[in-house]
Every structure is written in C-alpha cells, then in structure tokens.
Give the backbone structure.
Amino acid sequence: MAALPEGRVLTDPDVTESYARDRTFLPPGRPLGVVLAQSRDDVVATMRWAADHRVPVVPRGAGTGLAGGATAIDGCVILSLSRMTAIRELSPRDEIAVVEPGVITADMDRAAREHGLMYAPDPSSFEISTIGGNLATNAGGLRCVKYGVTRDSTLGLEVVLAGGRVLRTGRRTMKGVTGYDLTGLFVGSEGTLGVITAATLRLRRAPRSIATIAAEFTSLRDAAEAVAAIIAAGCQPSLLELMDRTTLKSIDEWKNIGLEPSTRAMLIAQSEGSPDEMAALCGAASFVATASTPEEADELVGLRRLAYPAKERLGQCLTEDVCVPRSRLPEMITSIEEAAARHDVMISTVAHAGDGNVHPVFIFERGLAEPPPAVWAAADEVFRAALDLGGTLTGEHGVGVLKQRWLGLETGPLVTELNHGIKQVFDPLNILNPGKAI
Amino acid sequence: MAALPEGRVLTDPDVTESYARDRTFLPPGRPLGVVLAQSRDDVVATMRWAADHRVPVVPRGAGTGLAGGATAIDGCVILSLSRMTAIRELSPRDEIAVVEPGVITADMDRAAREHGLMYAPDPSSFEISTIGGNLATNAGGLRCVKYGVTRDSTLGLEVVLAGGRVLRTGRRTMKGVTGYDLTGLFVGSEGTLGVITAATLRLRRAPRSIATIAAEFTSLRDAAEAVAAIIAAGCQPSLLELMDRTTLKSIDEWKNIGLEPSTRAMLIAQSEGSPDEMAALCGAASFVATASTPEEADELVGLRRLAYPAKERLGQCLTEDVCVPRSRLPEMITSIEEAAARHDVMISTVAHAGDGNVHPVFIFERGLAEPPPAVWAAADEVFRAALDLGGTLTGEHGVGVLKQRWLGLETGPLVTELNHGIKQVFDPLNILNPGKAI
C-alpha cells in the first residue's frame, strides 16, 4: 500500500470496525484495514496490492445496504469509495451525467433538477446512499415503477478490475449494441466483478406536474384492487406505495395521524395525470385525500417516508425485499400476515405496489446480536411463499450474504455454475468481495 | 441428428442456400444443413449433436438482420427458430407475455393490443422480424425513444446452451436482483452464448391518445434544433424521426408527395401531449402538418415507413447504424454528407433523431456481389466520425460480421479479452455462431 498517499489507509481496529458493517445484523469479519480512496489511481493501487498479496477487497459506499454486500470479511481490506464525490460532467442537452461512485444519490438528483432533469432511481436511503452502492445493488426505489431501476439509468462505466487494470464499458449514447452488455453485468454484481470508479448515467426530463393522492382502505384486497385499477387505466403512476396497518399504527403512535380503527391499508399514488381520476379508481376506499399544492403532496408522500423511522422506534428491524408478479400481491401480503401470526413475530409491511415489490420488516427486541430463530423461521416462510407465487427473493436490495441460504431455491445449480464461471473471468484470484451475491 | 423427427432437417443445397443469408451483402458460407426446430427438444437435440460432432451452429429467425449475424459459416448447421411461434401466455394483469422465438414482432404487439397493452420494440422490419432475432440483436425501433430497446422489455429467458443443457434466467416480476444479469447478457449476444427458446416479455399500457406532426425544414441544423426543443420541453415523444433530402426525394419520385425544392429535411414526431405544442417547437420549419385523425397520423408516419422501400428502388443498399449523443446529431449528418461527396457515393439518411441513432443507407449499383470500394471507404469515414463524436458503431443492428473490422476502434483489447472469456464460459467448444458479435 506504499503507493497510496498518507492518510488514505486506516488500520486502528477501533476505527476500522465502524467500516465493517452495512445496515444488516450480520456479525462482520475483522478487516485488516480501510482504504479511503480519493481517485481512480488509489483504487488501482489498492487492487494491485490486494492481488499481489491475495487479500480480499470489500468495496463500500455509504454502508446503507440491507443484505450484507458491504459486510467485512476476516482479513479483508475495506475499499471505501465515499470520498470520490465529483460530478465530472452534466450535459442537459444529451441528458447524461458522468459521476464518481461516492456521489450521494439525492445530490445527483438535485444537480439534475437545476436543468429541468432528474436522476430517477430513488431508494428509500437516497439522501445518504451513494451512486456506487446503488450501482452495486441495482437499487430501485419509489419512482422505478415508472422509470426503471438503476441499471435502466446506466449507460457506461469505468471499472478497476481485480488485478488493477482499468476497463471502460458502454457508451454516452442512448442506444448501443457493440459486444456483450458488460455495463449491465457490473450493475447489480455487488462489487464481485470490479470496482466502479465512474458511471455515465442517463438523466430524464423531470415531470411538468405531479398529482398526488392518499387513499385508506378497510381491507388489503381492496387496496390491491385499486393498484390494479390505476395501472390498468393507464395512469402511468410514478409512485404507487402501499402501507399495512402495522406500519400505519407505528406512524400514528409517533406522529398522531388520526388513524381510523377500521383502516387496514393506505395507498399513496402519484402520476402526471389527474388526481380525480386516480381517486375515482380507488373505488372501495374509505377515505381519499387529494393534494392540491406541492406542500400537501410532500405531506402525503412524507407519510411513506416516515415508515422506516417509525418501525425503528419499535425495535431492531430486519428488512426483507421479496417481489412477486403484481397480480399476486394480495396473496403475498396474506402469506406475510400468516407467517407473522404463526411465529408470533411482528412484521410491518410496505410495498412498492406497482412493481409487486414487498418489504416485510421483521421487528424484534433491541440489543440482540442477530434476529431470533422465530424471525428467521417467519422469513423463511415469506421467501418460500414469494418463490411459490412466481416471485423472487430480492427485488432491489441484493443477495449479499443475507440471502445466500435461499439463493439455490430460486436459481438452481446451472445458474450458479455460470455465475461462478463469469466471476472467474473477471476475478480469477477471487479477491473481490468473495462469498457475496452469487 | 437421428433424434429429430422426419422433415425437420434440410440438406438439399438448393434449399439450404436460401437460409444462408440475412439482409446484408456478405458472401455466406456453405451450410451442411438446416434444422427447422419446432420445439425446445429439437433445439436440445441439435445442440447435443453439434457438440458431439464439433459442428458450428448458426441460429436464425426471419433473416431480417442487417449485420450478418445470421450469415452461414462453412460447414455449419443453420438452426431456424421461425417455426416456434407460440405465445405461451399473455397476462394483462401482470403485463407480461411468455413467447417462443419465432413469434413475429408485430404479431406480439397485436396480441397485446387486444388487452389495451403493447409490445413496445418496433424495429423497421417488425412486420417480418421475429422476437428471437430482436432478442439476438437487442433490436430498437421507432418507439424506443420513449420505451427503450428489446433488453428493456425482456424479463426472463429460457435458453439452450451449447452442450444442450436448458437454462432459465430472470423472472416474471418487474424487478429482481438475484445474481448476475444473465438475461441482459443473452440479449444482444447475437446467438453466440446460447439459443433462446422462450422469453418472458414485459408489455406496457398502450397510450390513450397520440398526437402526430410532420415538419419540413430548409436546413438540417434547424431540424436538429427542433429535435432538441421537443426533448427539452418535456414532450416525451414516443417517435421522433428525421429524414434527409435524399430520402425524401426517393419517396417523392415514387409516390409524388409534392416535395418542395428548398426542403432539406423532414421531422415526424408523436407524443401523448398536444400536437400544437410540438408544432410550435418546430420554430424554423417551413411547413408543419398536424394529424387530426388516426388515419392522418398513419399517413404521416407512413411516409417514414416508405423510406426503405423507396431507397431499394434506387439500387442495392448497405444500411448503417451509427449512434451519437443527441447534441452531436448535426455534426454526424454533416460528416455523412461530406463522406458522400468525397467518395461520390449516394447516401440517404434517416435517423431515430430522439436517440441520436442515424441510419445512413449507402446505395450502389444493383447486381454487384458486394459494395464497391468507394462505399466501404465512405462507410469507414462515417464509422470513425461517429466514434470521434463520442458515439458507437451500432445503435441497434449489432456487430455481426459486417462491423468486425471496426470493432477494435470502439472497444479496445481489454473488452475483447473479457468478451471472449464470457464466450468461453458459455460455449467452451466455440460452436455457437463463431466469429460473430465480439
């Protein structure tokens, strides 16, 4: 590591420990040290040293991951990209930006808004997550029901490979089909194939106007029917979020939102169309609020943004991330409720309902080193239910280490064999985030 | 090939020759035979036999490709998927379809329209091209300026690998991040990694209403400015097509559209917004036609669909496919005009202008076995100009064999090495469409 300028390497265990975890409850390994990369050259130097010494490298953004993708491995170097924060270029005319991986997601969006554009992917952690972490997990968010996930906004990458060579993939153009889609392969690979040091991102025109409604329902099935109706009517929602009663209750206990005893679910929807049309499509709703000013809209969407902090007040949270075909949403939520009852576990559910992406949050006693067995048993049932419904273990958080146990149920041995074959092409020494993702 | 039922294998050279070409002018190799697969089992049997006998296999859809991806190799088996035409499932509620590779692209769209949905990708050949061919090349089209390319509409695949094993990739859900993006890797791989035998496609809501305009300009730069203005205003066009004077003249000579002597370019635009707004954004236009009925809209878009047949009346066509950042469109078109003048070659240009994807069509004497040297010299200049402008050799047609000569200029040795490494993982015997794409 002599190639790195002073101050870039941390080795004090008290300090390095704080870089060893993401937001999961997995007991991390003990890192050798932490590199605070400030440039591509720092990344190259680190990867060369790691290859020479056969030391595993765990790349890291802001550590907001929910699957353990950035969790330390014993004897690894943590390679933090969070100091590489330059927006190298922003071209309003071409609707692209070239950015470094440490740029905060919401900062990217704000920079684009100055030109009437937006950066669409908005994971719930977007005010603290980095673009690099979003690329590693192929992050989704609230707006992806209309605009797609991180991969859909990524045109090209600069990547440092395991041996320190620098690769450029993709392009600055909207379309291109020269060779295999290496860009798409890196996005979502959880730092196992290379370290992204720059990305060419696609920006989009910000919508001219947004209509916002919030509807309350006395049954989950009615709420799911409203989701289907809003989609089928062609409203093209840019946000379509569902919260269950457990979630609403946790918000009500904190902020006193006047939750009715009969309310079982709330749907929050945004589109560029008419609020009245969306309200009318929530036929079975017990109450519909329509925002008539941007402030009122922020207030309604703000309810959804309160969901996670409200849950965290109740205990420690294991946040899961199953995704099912949209029509199976009611069955998925029923399965979650049944698992909660059977194992006497508190599960509070929010869903990116338009995508069929459901986040059951398992809440358990504070202070435990990891979730108790009943939580894992309930989670196991939820995962299996999602797969039975034609769904997937993870819509947007990634596999990390958290979902390794269930991975084989979804993908099978042939996919595993091919994934490991690809890994071998990019990282023959298996030093890049070994044991994650695949 | 004994495993195949009778009538599935053709070996008469007079017959097999007609399966040896796509729509390029490359002299094809001589195939051993043609397999007309009717099921996945036929594909498995073919791939097993080919692996056992080390015989190269060239998968083939409708043969509408423009880069030689389906051109026969000496001693190969042509594996035609065009008889696998089942739409296995179409779920309006989940907005997905599961289809076989021989389904005609426009048939997929028509099946979706019966449910208020559409299949968005619409390459110009969509009435005769197959979904399998579209997947192989990651085909684009007119609507992809709004809805993206074939990869953006592909959720999962069933693939027969080189040795005959059957792989399932992806999912039925809108989102999913389990493992590497194998689905995206197969799309655009031009049949070099596996043979797609089924695809789970994403359908989209068909727009409620479409506004259509056609605007004439006395300079290309004015037309390009109108493109930029329509995008910047947030019209979200679903079609934004540019035709140069050479193209318009060939249509006028055939259909007598009353082309003005001063007209240098025509722009055709569609959006879900207001036609008057789009017309107003074509500030420098010499004339703007606005469609007030669906029939009038079809007539305006029909002008664009006449472009290729009109060119083919003038001679043989080499259709190219460069793509540049949208702001560089005027420079790209100027470079094409300069190359045409310098080499005394007729080049007629249409562009998916909203994507910066430019199709210069090089027109030359009928009856020649391949394009004359002046055409290649002009094409070489056009390719190099596209790369100099930050663009790519191919926006949507693929590399095939046609663009192999220039591939290294765009991608460099490291990309080539990694692409070949991936190829080796999927096809260690190198029997799947060898020498294509990468």
